[in-house]
Amino acid sequence: MDIACRSDEESFRRELRGWLRDNRAYAPALGDRAKPALQAWSRRLFDGGYVGLTWPVEHGGHGFGVQHELILAEECDRAAVPEPPNVVGLHMAGPTLIGHGSSAQQRQHLLPILHGGQMFCLGFSESEAGSDLSSVRTRAVRSDGGYRISGTKLWSSYADLADYCLVLARTDPDAEQHRALSLLLVDMTAPGVEVTPIRQINGDEGFCQIRFDAVEVGDAGLVGAAGAGWPVAMSTLAHERITLAVTLVSRLGVQLDRLIATMKERGEATTPSLRRRLAQLCVDQRALEATAARTLTTIRATGRPGDESRILKLQWSRTHQDLTALAVDVLGIDALDLGHQSVAGWTSKLLRSRGSTIEGGTTEILQSVIAEQVAGLPKTR
Q1: 240 classed as catalytic
Q2: How far apart are the first and last CA of the chain?
Q3: What's 334's DSSP letter?
Q4: 345: which of 87, 132, 141, 335 is 20 to 30 A away, CA to CA?
Q5: Are 66 and 246 in contact (CB under 8 A)?
Q6: How far is Cα 216 from Cα 192, in angstroms, rounded to an integer?
Q7: What are 336-369's pLDDT values in tens digits?
Q8: What gap in Å lies between CA 292 and CA 313, rounded to an integer?
Q9: Which of 329, 333, 232, 229 is nearest to 278 (CA)?
Q10: Is 214 a residue whose pLDDT tops 90?
Q11: Can you give the pLDDT at residue 369?
Q12: Buried b (16+ CB within 10 A) or exposed e, 28-48
């Protein structure tokens, strides 16, 4: 396991810290969802050289390893500024177009994704399909020069801000489940697209429902071959697993440091019951860091994540819930004072963490995947 920080990574961290110190005044407030402000921040990060870190140089990126994305996430969190806001575009849609998109699609979308001019969302999940993407019901019926898409997608992040959506739809009703799917690029301003934000328990509206009512998409919007949407979609989710899972673990370490500071400030650092829970959190967080390091080592050696990466999101979601629950217990009755920014931050994180074991594959689905595909246990369904 390679856990040493390389000289180029240390230099990158120092330069990034200095840049964030000089530019943090231009950053939108955390939680600000005003699109112009987010795009302006994206452009500033792009001009500073901190966007597309792992993208190939020939497509406008820097060709760095995942470790640089981890450093970016960690330092942005420490500086209390947003990361590049176009999360889906940078970490999922962009890499998918690089690997499977046509040259025309790459010319049209890759540079705008990098500087934030085009924001993306995913149209994968559906209420009837649950976590089983092979069972999606959204249909793309062949029409003159393209497809006509009808159906509903759920839990789509940033759909209310997105300019384009990668939609997984059924294009061949007679084919087997996986062979019947295609991936299509949909303009979110096209007639028939309706986006409804979903208010979460903490008041945020980060997820949306998308309805497609006979939305026309030309042949130029097909990503990859017709009927080959399943492997393309799996590559999209693999990019999510590689980058987002590792950066989530990195940000967890920053939150743990803040929790320790909160306990000290409130005189709870010596309370035995709270110290025991904190000690367990420290153990869990260090274990996650070690697993993330193993994932990075495997990626450096093979170019793809190993089986250990499947555990990251599963265990992170549980640890994140435990951490925010302890923070609110430390706050006590003060957790209800939502007018105090630091208090409201912990309370909001606690409420938001309830979705951590649902999004990105539910805990139950991830456990089944690990049991069957990693441990080799027989399927139960």
Answers
A1: yes
A2: 36
A3: G
A4: 87
A5: yes
A6: 8
A7: 776 665 665 888 889 889 888 887 778 888 888 8
A8: 10
A9: 329
A10: yes
A11: 82
A12: beeeeeebebbbbbbbbbbee
How many of the other CB atoms lie within 10 Å of CB of 176?
A: 11
- CA-to-CA distance for 89 and 111, rounded, in angstroms? 11
Strand partners, 295: none
CA dist list (Å): 29 to 75, 82, 106, 243: 16, 8, 32, 24
Looking at the DSSP bridge assignments, the partners of residue 166 are: 122, 185
> How many CB atoms are closer than 10 A to CB 303?
7
pLDDT band at residue 4 under the 50/70/90 scheme: low
Alpha helices (runs of H) in the chain, residue ranges in sequence order: 7-23, 35-48, 66-78, 87-88, 94-100, 103-115, 229-265, 272-302, 309-331, 341-353, 363-369
How many whole angstroms from its chain centre is CA 30? 16
Phi/psi for 275 (5° steps) reads -65, -40
Angle between helices 66-78 and 229-265 (to 10 degrees): 40
Q: Which amino acid is at 277?
A: R
Phi, psi for 204 (deg, rounded to 5): -75, 160
The phi and psi torsions of 257 (rounded to 5 degrees) equal -60, -40
Structural tokens at position 67: 């470790």
* pLDDT at 37 (0 to 100): 96
AA letter at 25: A
Give the tokens for residue 166: 């990668």
Identify the residue whose tokens are 């003159």.
Answer: 144
Q: What are φ and ψ of residue 199, in 5° steps?
A: -75, 130
Total length of the chain: 381
Rg, C-alpha atoms of the chain = 21
Q: Are 370 and 323 in contact (CB under 8 A)?
A: no
Structure tokens at 131: 């976590």
Contact 17, 72 (CB under 8 A): no
As a whole number of angstroms, the distance between CA 95 and CA 83 comes to 18
Amino acid identity of residue 179, one-letter, is R
Task: Provide DSSP, 79-92.
Answer: TT----S-HHIIII
Q: Using an 8 Å Cβ cutoff, are 270 and 260 in contact?
A: no
Catalytic residue among 69, 75, 240, 268: 240
